[in-house]
Amino acid sequence: MTLKRTNWLSGPSFAFSKSQLKTMALRRNGGIPTVPGTVTLKKDSQNVIGISIGGGAQHCPCLYIVQVFDNTPASLDGTIAAGDEITGVNGKSVKGKTKVEVAKMIQNVKGEVTIHYNKLQADPKQGKSLDIVLKKVKHRLVENLSSGTADALGLSRAILCNDGLVKRLEELEKTGEFYRGMMEHTKRLLRSFFELSQTHRAFGDVFSVIGVREPQPAASEAFVKFADAHRSIEKFGIGLLKTIKPMLSDLNTYLNKAIPDTKLTIRKYLDVKFEYLSYCLKVKEMDDEEYSSIALGEPLYRVGTGNYEYRLILRCRQEARARFAKMRKDVLEKIELLDQKHVHDIVFQLQRFVSAMSKYNDQCYEVLKEADIFPIEVGWHFREISRPRQGRFVVGD
């Protein structure tokens, strides 16, 4: 800064550099720079561009955008955002006007309207204060409380707290338990079938030994045939196990990959939702503070200096809402895909199980039908067993 004295009567005058003037302006703006710009918006069929305006005379020196509504010309254009200052409409300055007067200026323009603005170059990190973090914690706690409990504790519940997606998270937990029970039941079933197959194999070995040692040709052939039937049943059982075993892999993929991934997405969505609700609550608190100060005749300093802190929170709320809408869309798509996979997967797995069991039973029936060997004629050889005096057994014909 340089001092330049003109004369003793007029006093000292100060000359500031551009960087010093910019620094002083940033201090007045709360450290948030602005960039001027112009945008032309074409009105919709309802003669609106889709913004709400705040500030203005007589308490605030500037007018600013409070909210940009979804699916409106301003939202689809994307140039202006919440927190931006409006400096003119169709080349006319709005300085010193009220928000109602500016709204009428925009409304009276037909077709296209040109908005002159100062873009707020806000960093969302500046608005994420400790107060916002504590509000997120509060919303997270209230989310898990019933309405009666929250009212008894004096905790306000936001409308979005009664979110259907939270119930879907509970349904996913139940679906996970269902799949976990199905996996355990399938494992026990496979283990039982394996043991049954080993029993059939043991039967086949025993009957095979009996058939080999049987002197009667017809009986020997019958026992061998019966042994082969049991060995075939054992092979059918192993084939059944190989068919049903992939069920475990598919169920495990759904249980340990698809469901956890969707639950993680829902939790991320909830975190974004709580942040958005926190900014909404912060905006309401600042609005109430402003209304109270005006009612008392004591305007707030932040309002009289451009309300930059409030505009920063408005920008943060808009960006949090955009993230919230995007995450909600992603979650709904994932849940829909998961539901479709659940329905298709359950039908496919049950069809695989039923067809495998049906095939196994048909194969066993065909084998046992061919092995109808009863009655069996077995030759009994009677032998005389004598015990001599020496204590030895002697077997003779």
UniProtKB/TrEMBL annotation:
One of its GO terms (molecular function) is actin binding. Pfam families: Arfaptin, PDZ. GO terms for cellular component: cytoskeleton; membrane; neuron projection; perinuclear region of cytoplasm; postsynaptic density. CDD domains: BAR_PICK1, PDZ_PICK1-like. InterPro entries: AH/BAR_dom_sf, AH_dom, Arfaptin_fam, PDZ, PDZ_sf, PICK1_BAR. It comes from the Eukaryota. It is a lipid-anchor; Peripheral membrane protein. It is found in: Cytoplasm, Cytoskeleton; Cytoplasm, Perinuclear region; Membrane; Postsynaptic density. Residues 160-373 form the AH domain. Keywords: Actin-binding, Calcium, Cytoplasm, Cytoskeleton, Lipoprotein, Membrane, Metal-binding, Palmitate, Phosphoprotein, Synapse, Synaptosome, Zinc. Its main location: cytoplasm. Residues 38-121 form the PDZ domain. Monomer and homodimer. Interacts with CXADR. Interacts presynaptically with the glutamate receptors GRIA2, GRIA3, GRIK3, isoform 3 of GRIA4, isoform A of GRM4, GRM7 and GRM8; with NAPA and NAPB; and with BTG2. The interaction with NAPA and NAPB disrupts the interaction with GRIA2, conducting to the internalization of GRIA2. Probable adapter protein that bind to and organize the subcellular localization of a variety of membrane proteins containing some PDZ recognition sequence. Involved in the clustering of various receptors, possibly by acting at the receptor internalization level. Plays a role in synaptic plasticity by regulating the trafficking and internalization of AMPA receptors. May be regulated upon PRKCA activation. May regulate ASIC1/ASIC3 channel. This is PRKCA-binding protein.
